[in-house]
Amino acid sequence: MGNSEFPPEISEISATSVENFQHSDPATWPKMTDKTRRFLIQHGPEQERREFSPNTLCDFDNRMRHFSSKWYEKIHPNGEKFVRYWLLYSNKKDSLFCFCCLLFSTTKTNNFSEILKEFCDWKKLNPRIPEHENRNERQRCYSDWKNLEKNLKEGKTLDSDLQRVINGEMKKWRDILKVIVDAILFCAKNNLALRGSTEVIGEQNSDIFLNLIELISYYYPLVAEHVASVKAKKTTTSYFSPRIQNELIELLGQKVRNEILSNVREAKHYSVLFDCTPDASHKEQMTQIIR
Questions:
Q1: How far from the centroid of its chain's Cα atoms is residue 154's Cα?
Q2: Which of 183, 281, 286, 289 is deepest in the core (most CB within 10 A)?
Q3: 83 - beta bridge partners?
Q4: Distance from C-alpha of 235 to C-alpha of 73, rounded to nearest angstrom
Q5: Phi/psi at 234 (nearest 5 deg)?
Q6: Which residues contact 196 (CB under 8 A, 6 or more apart)?
Q7: Packed helices 221-231 and 208-217: angle between N→C axes, nearest 10 degrees
Q8: What are the pLDDT tens digits along the chain (291 aa)?
Q9: Beta-carbon count within 10 A of 213 CB
Q10: What is the spatial distance between Cα 244 and Cα 13, in angstroms, rounded to a whole number?
Q11: pTM of the complete model
């Protein structure tokens, strides 16, 4: 929930790695696994195209050198241009890498195919890039990349059936979480307390939130199946617990705060008001109003 853009296919990556992950920078990629490889191929290589500043001192002629985006293109003798989609620039490493070799190379004998052996000898881009492009190992990796890309698009991978099951489970839990979020928003909108005498759905004196989920289950087969599994104790994952409710409330609250702050930053003029009132324990509660 904290990083909705990052797919669950590589959820085994640490939170720090998720924050630093960039499609266009191979130096930020996690350890290569089958799941990561499939994810990167489905997204496709992402080339960083911008004006690069000289940041490497060359001992050969004592000049500052840098990578140029023109190397992303290959010009044939007949003048026809082709994009080198396999060529990636790492801003973190200030180096070049080969997309298909990073994914499929087993030899790891050249600087384009291993993060720890990055290529950054800018004065030797020619002939090193054409040389790598014509290597048998790179051509094999390129073929493996395109074959797997085609199979993924057509759903013909060996584990395509398993992937369909995984995708079905992902959709199921997303739909269930959407219902849970809507129930929490309904309670908040109507100023209804979520807490009750019991935290078990279906029991007497359970809270409004659980009663609302049970009501929805009468008309939503997916939720009905999930509620029945929870009641029968066939699953230990319900997403109905107070801890999950509090986490979702915190995420929703942060979203609201971010939206308010965004509107404030865009406004030319605004006023800030504060109001205090004691609660039942005679403790002052402050309200901040921005308009």
A1: 23
A2: 183
A3: 73
A4: 54
A5: -85, -15
A6: 205, 206, 207, 208, 209, 210
A7: 120
A8: 333 344 444 444 443 344 567 888 888 888 888 888 888 998 889 888 776 655 544 444 555 667 777 888 888 778 788 888 888 888 888 888 889 988 888 876 665 666 556 666 777 778 888 888 888 888 999 999 998 898 888 777 656 667 777 888 899 999 999 999 999 999 999 988 888 778 888 788 888 899 999 999 999 999 999 999 988 888 888 888 889 999 999 999 999 889 988 888 888 888 889 888 888 888 888 888 888
A9: 26
A10: 22
A11: 0.47
**What is the token pair recorded at 231?**
């009641």
Query: Per the structure block, which two tokens stand in for 129?
Result: 């890039």
Task: Give the whole-angstrom CA distance, residue 219 versus residue 224.
Answer: 8
**Residue whose tokens read 């985006």:** 69
Torsion of CA 141, 147, 149, 150, to 10 degrees: 160
